[in-house]
Amino acid sequence: MNEERREFIKKTSIGFLAGIGASSGFFLNFLMEKTDASLWAGKSIAGTIRWGMLIDMRQCIDGCQKCVDACRLAHNVPDFGNATHQIEWLQKSPYREVFPTSGEDFAGQERIGKSVPSLCNHCADPPCASACPTQATFKRFDGIVALDYHRCTGCRTCMASCPYGAISFNWREPRHAIKALNESYPTRETGVVEKCNFCSERLLKGKLPACVEACPEKTLTFGNLNDPKSEIRLLLEKNQTMQRKPELGTLPSVFYII
Amino acid sequence: MKITKRNVVIGLLIIFALVALRVLWPTAKAEKIASPTARATPIDSTVCIAPTEYMRSHHMQILNEWRNTGARDSRPYVTADGKKFQKSLDTCLGCHSNNTYFCISCHQYANAKPTCWNCHLSPLDKP
């Protein structure tokens, strides 16, 4: 092989590599997808908001429905009076229905005999938002899994994908079934789904969710999970808490103390 | 150490690796979320968002845009003169529900059938 040719190829390839190396600092940033460090750092990002709720069952009164009633009134949730058409944003369900996979089949009645408030978990990785074909269900900037009723086509894919059964469908015209009409909140119409919105309309006004405000005990604690100094984070640090079906990896924002 | 061609190549490779590392290093800046407090705008219903003539001819376009973006993008609507409004039908109804027939009288005359009142409570629905 010609010695000059060999030298030429060596030098040009070194020059090429050096060229890429030097110029990468200038323009490769635009060509590459940004990597979010938070993906490695766990789910808690300081300085941002992720609303969450802690339900302390030690303080919940058996048979009390004040949170459920407050939610119904705040959001004009209809009451059809039959299980097929029933619409629930927040309800008190039997313990075994709320925690079916917690491995407590043979626990004592004082533990599994309770009726536990269950609502949308506002998952950090919501399967309903992934399933929605029109992106009517989506995750908001503050961690709330919101529903844009204007976009909902009523396909009910979200209901099928939600492992907590937190979404209800309006089979019938809901306005007639509202017991007490709240004028400050819209109703829904036939053919759309609905679920808990963590009272985003009240948060906008700086108020706590209706259920938290209505609770006569300190059962419900609402706060920012990303703020290490918030009340909810302090309670989560001090107590042993559980989530619903944590094995599914949906990362619920609703925690329970049993 | 003698400056041989081999050492030069190794040196260049190290520089290249360092630059590549700086470029590919994950940044916390990606998808940074704006402060949530800036998004909350109180409902201001003291003035209209645009002159009456414009609202008469274009309220449907504005309301359509508010409907499409309001739930998703919680930033307020900013008018040409810099006033901020929350994208909500309640912003309009804050004033306009004073007249119970404000919406319906004109819609009925024009045979316009907007779907707003399927869910939102019209001034007529309120007792």
Give a written overview of the molecule.
The complex is a heterodimer of chains A (258) and B (127). With 258 residues, chain A is of the alpha+beta class. Chain A has a single domain (51-257), classed as 2-Layer Sandwich (Alpha-Beta Plaits), CATH 3.30.70.20. Chain A is 29% helix and 14% strand. Chain A contains 9 helices and 9 strands. Chain A has helices spanning 3-31, 66-75, 95-98, 109-112, 127-131, 157-161, 200-203, 210-214, 231-238, and strands at 51-56, 90-94, 115-119, 137-139, 145-147, 168-169, 193-194, 220-224, 254-257. In chain A, the strands form 4 sheets. In chain A, strands 8-1-9 form a 3-stranded mixed beta sheet, with helices on one face. Chain A has a two-stranded antiparallel ribbon with strand order 2-3. In chain A, strands 4-5 form a two-stranded antiparallel sheet. In chain A, a hairpin with a 5-residue loop joins strand 4 (137-139) and strand 5 (145-147). Residues 37-42 of chain A have low confidence and may be disordered. With 127 residues, chain B is mainly alpha-helical. Chain B has a domain at 48-118. Chain B is 43% helix and 3% strand. Chain B is built from 4 helices and 2 strands; from the N terminus they run H-H-E-E-H-H. A two-stranded antiparallel ribbon of chain B has the order 1-2. In chain B, strand 1 and strand 2 (84-85) form a beta hairpin. Chain B is rod-shaped. The N and C termini of chain B lie far apart (93 Å). In chain B, 9% of the residues are buried. Chain A binds chain B through residues 10, 14, 17-18, 20-22, 24-25, 28-29, 32, 34-40, 48-49, 138, 140-142, 146, 148-150, 181, 183-184, 186-189, 204-206, and chain B through 5, 8-9, 12-13, 15-16, 19-20, 22-24, 26-31, 33-34, 36, 39-40, 42, 67-68, 71-72, 74, 86, 90, 118-121, 125-127.
Notable characteristics:
heterodimer; A: 258 residues; alpha+beta; Alpha-Beta Plaits; three-stranded mixed beta sheet; two-stranded antiparallel ribbon; 9 helices; 29% helix; elongated; B: 127 residues; mainly alpha; 4 helices; 43% helix
